[in-house]
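Regression check, magnesium ion case 599:
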Amino acid sequence: MKPPEERNEEIYLKGAPVSEGIAIGIPIFLSYADEDDIPDFPISTGEVEGEIARYRQAILSSREDLKKLQADLAGEGSKEVASIIGTHIEMLDDPLMTTHMEIKIREMLKNTESVFHSVINDYEKRFSETNDSFFNERLSDFRDLSKRVLRNLCDSENISLDNIPPNSIVFAKELIPSDTASLQATRISAFVTQSGGGTSHAALIARAKGIPYVASVNMEILQNAKGKCVIVDGLTGDIIVNPSNITLEKYERLRNRLTKQYQQLEKDKHLAAETLDGYPLTLYANVNTINDIDLVHHHGSRGIGLFRSEYLFMQDPALFFDEERQYLIYHQMLKRSRGLPLTFRALDLGGDKCSDLFEEMAKEPNPVLGCRGIRFLLRRTDIFKTQLRAIIRAGYGYDLRILFPLISDIHEFREVKRIIEEVKGELSLRALNFNNQPLLGCMLEVPSAVLIADALAQESDFLALGTNDLIQYTLGIDRSNPGMSDFYYPTHPGIIRMIKMTILEAKRFQKPVTICGEIASNPLFTPLLIGLGVQNFSCAPRFIPIIKRTVRHLSLLDCCDIAEHVLTLRTSAEIACYLAECLHGSEGQASLKRDAEGI
Ligand code: PEP
Ligand code: MG
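Current build output:
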């Protein structure tokens, strides 16, 4: 008997739902040249010319990929990034990439991937020892470029996100944030991965862009899906390979229904975000790219509560050392914000973001507990000060706010303020205009910060609760590990108490608090957060209409009762259950979750 895939039967698989939505498309397998998987074997002198020809072909393919990406980015208005890609194209002609490599293949008599890997490693070793910003810029560019060439070398079937066909469902072992960050240049309808948890940074981007995403799926099994139609249900985690006509029609109906629900929500976007009894809330947006700013206006947000600035740098590492270009980008963003407040978060590097770029965090045993966020910035003040100079220069005449990630001790924030004064002095000497009084805020993402919320509130202008990390660090659970997602409890009583504590301390010192983790975009939490005293929410722009609709169906009085009751509950499960009951009980509740009527 033939195996099911050869009999053209439907195959059902179950993964962990990460970002909701329905996608129907054709799979594309994305793989990375994993350092441990790079083939390494000797070759004979007779094989040298063949290896060199293969190398030249990889360079040619990399050039074509880059040219296509450059054209796509320029077409979308991302001229800055497109020009960086131009630099990468030029670097492909660098003697290191051409003659030197060919000489090395002849000398070392090894396969091309192995020679290329060792040449790039040597180069990195030599230049990472210098703190010269010129070489550091070149180093980051070479790293990015070498990954691309290696991808093209290791497997001619490998496809990068830059050049996939429309309506593709991307299957990958893992997604790295720099790939998801460049998504505007592509046409992806869903992601399916083996690893990557619900609040990993790749997941946040997928949700922000409304791309369905299912994780924890065995890629070996999915190899059978090549060339077949696949349905991905990002809400349930279902993946259906080779669906029957009946299944296909069912999911097409469901997809149309979800689209209509979103369109309906959009209609109310200009209404005020206030409860039935007139209690006003402010809904800000979390943005990751310049183009997201247009979505902020589109979805009716009151400003940007969190701009994750590090995403700009993932596509363009040379930017770390380029104050002028950063200034131009930030200024452009402020202009596009049209007078709405814009909160720049200083670079939050480390953990799963850019951890391969800097020596300070290279090969850490526990990257999320290592040189991340403010810790990195206080060690690399050259990078920190470059960004601060660019931000406060760009913010001249604008409502500028700056937020600092992963603060765990008041002395870190004091050091930040001292550095800002130093930066202002430097700009004055250069006779440049700058915003002399940006509002400065601390991100509360670790328990120690919540426990000193009084001191942080007293010494800063505002606070932001980063609950994605707060849950990770309070419960000691890796937010990127899908295997542990059963233990990632956003409704944990400890987390609810921490939110309450922070709000009370901030109120005592009359400082605003914004909640900007993923729970701000989940209607399940909206009544609880309002009842705990949260007045400012910041979430991905596409969730603003649903949060607004939810708020408009609640009363402050009910929210306070809900919060009071939640504080008496003992387990995450009880709280989750109770909040679900409240949401379903509230008249006209705005949940987009499906009921039995769909499928
Ligand atoms: C958070 O930790 O809640 C947060 C908003 O920051 P990020 O998700 O970028 O780590
Ligand atoms: Mg965080």
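Comparison notes: Residues 1-5, 587-599 have pLDDT under 50 and may be disordered. The pocket of phosphoenolpyruvate (ligand 1) is lined by residues 204, 306, 308, 348, 445, 466-469, 516-517 (CB under 6 Å). No diff flagged against the previous build.
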